[in-house]
Amino acid sequence: MKVVTFGEALMRLASPAYERLNQAKQFDIFIGGAELNVAVSLANFGIESVFVTKLPAHHIGQNIIQFLRGFNVETTFIVRGGERVGLWFYEHGVSQRPPDVIYDRKNSSITELQKGDINWSAVFQDARWFHFTGISAALNDSVRENLRDACKTAKTLGLTVSCDLNYRAKLWSPDEAQREMIPLMTFVDVCMTNDSDAEKMLGVKTPNGDNAYFKLAETLKKTFNLKAVSITLRDRLSDSFNKRSAVFIDDGDCKTPYLSRSYDMTITEHIGGGDAFDAGLIYGLLMKPNSKEALEFAVAASVLKQSITGDVNRVTAEEVERLVQQGSKGRVER
To answer: pLDDT by residue (tens digit) across 189-222?
Structure first.
């Protein structure tokens, strides 16, 4: 059971504790990136996981490769070259103050990928699933060209293709996003999104009235001929306290949209929750007997991630199952 992800590997430089970026004198460094985070989570769940990107052939690039190997993520198909690892600076939010982000990722190695640098037929040998996000599509034309080649090859070889829309306003506008993403949706089987990203990336607005998110899921599925759609729901009481749940629709036991259990969350880490959800849903759809159980696993994985410092999730499938079974009040394991 092999899953392939493709995207940019990044280093996050976070101001310590709750310091502002304009007062920080040192930074905590975390390795991540949306698709990288999904690959690590899947490896932690016991799924054979392959991450594809381009990294410089210097010590910082090697640092990231060694990080991935530490989680048993396959790095064989990572292209080496270029000079830069993408960076981003992060200020933690707390209470009523939201997080802040500054990107320093222009001209990173992945943006220098050329057509043919990646042999997608070799990458996808024996694979079941290919996952990407809208972040990769936002980077530049050369990344998009490689992404389109990946999607075409994956579909030709019979893989399931999933995409988290993941709109990033600091990378492109809604008009630019829709121009690139709507054609890519012809390759997608499983779409992960929230209501805001669906509107910005695909131009699909959440309807008014009762069961709005159910109707949004149905509209997305029908409009883009998708096999499945998930919509994550977040009720922000403050930057530190959220309620988390999700809606799912597919061609299986969720032909009528299904709403997951809701969790009350105290958030200690804002980064990586959506990626943990994506990995949990992929794992669940591959391994669970039905899609309702897959969704519950995905939501629980996301909830656990937001209690863990860093970009990647560091929980096992067994720990996620424990939360699903015990509910929001986990018991001490002795």
So the answer is: 999 999 999 999 999 999 998 899 999 999 999 9
DSSP 125-162: TT--EEEEEHHHHTT-HHHHHHHHHHHHHHHHTT-EEE
pLDDT in tens, 170-189: 999 999 999 999 999 999 99
Report strand pairing: 228-236 vs 263-266: unpaired
Residue 93: its pLDDT value, please?
86
pLDDT on residue 252: 92
Taking the C-alpha atoms of residue 126 and residue 106, their distance in angstroms, rounded to an integer, is 34
Look up tokens 């600091």; give the residue: 170
What is the residue type of 48? Answer: E
- List own/partner pairs for 288-296 with CB under 8 A and 24 or more apart: 290/252, 290/253, 291/228, 291/248, 291/250, 291/252, 291/253, 291/254, 291/258, 292/248, 292/253, 292/254, 292/258, 294/248, 295/230, 295/246, 295/248, 295/254, 295/258, 295/260, 296/260, 296/261, 296/324
Name the residue ranges covered by the structural domains of the chain: 2-326
Q: How far apart are the first and last CA of the chain?
A: 33
pLDDT at 327: 79
> Is 67 within 8 Å of 310 (Cβ atoms)?
no
Contact 107, 119 (CB under 8 A): no
In the prediction, which pLDDT does 332 show? Answer: 53
Query: What are the residues facing 133 on neighbouring strands?
Result: 164
Tokens of 134: 């809208």
Give the global pTM: 0.97
Mean pLDDT within 125-148: 98
Between CA 228 and CA 234 the distance in angstroms is: 20
Would you tell me which CATH number, out of the four given (3.90.550.60, 1.10.760.10, 3.30.9.10, 3.40.1190.20), belongs to the domain 2-326? 3.40.1190.20
